[in-house]
Amino acid sequence: MPRRLSKAFFLLGWGFLWIRAAAAQAPDPLIADPEHSHLELENQWVRVFEEHLGPHETMPMHQHPAPGAAIVFLTDRNNKLTYFDGSVKSFQNHAGEVIWAAPTTHKSENLTGAQFAALQIEPRPVANPKPFPKESTDAVIVDPAHYRVLLENEWIRAISLTVGPHEKLKFHKHPATGAVVVLLTDQNMRQYHTDGSSHENHGKAGTVRWAPPDESHQDENLSDKPFRLVRIELKQAQN
């Protein structure tokens, strides 16, 4: 190989390594821009924070770490992301949509005249992960009219619930792993248990909750309005 060409490849490779190393030094979103990011929940299994931008506001360069994150959009999105290497992409999503985002370093801009908000749900890897537990009375099996799988990978399974006014779900049991529950609408529900006991659950749209493994139950919407939530089941959150 000619010396000049060899030198060009060396410089190109060095430049690529420098970009990767520099990108890895970009700050965490909560450090880079605490005005537009807010921690909602954190434990040994997961970290959840909200990103929010006003009309045409921007977030500075920040890093989203491995293995990535499930993103639940609380509003519609029309944002422009500028990556550390200078490349630019625009993204559009709807409120209630759930996607999986790979690790990345970028800055972002809200391209609209409306508020933007989304939840970043980051699973934390464990040393010796177990297989995702199977459940014969899984909600998506016994009650597919109300529950459906939105996306699934090695880290998470995201399912949605939509229940009409005063509807009652079938008895079901979620897989024995921890989950993050996001209320997309106000909650006014009663939960029934196999021992005959019951209790009510109430919450505002946008509320984020940690849900440990639970027993078989049945839910009833006490409201005159439909109720919607997203449940992000963390496959490695097992004791």
What is the structure about, briefly put?
The strands form four sheets. The protein has a five-stranded antiparallel beta sheet, with no helix packed on it. It has a five-stranded antiparallel beta sheet with strand order 10-11-17-12-15. A four-stranded antiparallel beta sheet has the order 3-8-5-6, with no helix packed on it. It has helices at about 5-25, 30, 140, and strands at about 35-40, 45-55, 60-65, 70-75, 75-85, 90-95, 100, 105-110, 115-125, 145-150, 155-165, 180-185, 185-195, 200-205, 210, 215-220, 225-235.
Task: Please outline the helices and strands.
Layout: H1 3-24, H2 29-32, E1 37-42, E2 46-53, E3 58-64, E4 69-73, E5 77-83, E6 88-93, E7 98-101, E8 104-110, E9 116-123, H3 139-142, E10 147-152, E11 156-163, E12 179-183, E13 187-193, E14 198-203, E15 208-211, E16 217-221, E17 227-234
Antiparallel strand pairs: 1-2, 2-9, 3-8, 4-7, 4-9, 5-6, 5-8, 10-11, 11-17, 12-15, 12-17, 13-14, 13-16
Q: Notable features of this structure?
A:
239 residues; mainly beta; Jelly Rolls; 5-stranded antiparallel β-sheet; globular
Low-confidence stretches: 8-23
Helix content: 10-25%
Query: What's the total count of β strands?
Result: 17
Class of secondary structure makeup: mainly beta
Q: Could you tell me how far the N terminus lies from the C terminus, measured between alpha carbons in angstroms? A: 56 Å
Going by CATH, the homologous superfamily of the largest domain would be Jelly Rolls
Strand order of the largest sheet: 1-2-9-4-7
Provide the domain count. Answer: 2
* CATH fold node name of the largest domain: Jelly Rolls
What is the average of the pLDDT values? 91
Beta fraction = 35-45%
Shape: globular
Instruction: Give the ordered list of helices and strands.
Output: HHEEEEEEEEEHEEEEEEEE
Q: How many helical elements?
A: 3
The CATH architecture of the largest domain can be given as: Sandwich
Our Rg estimate from Cα atoms comes to 21 Å
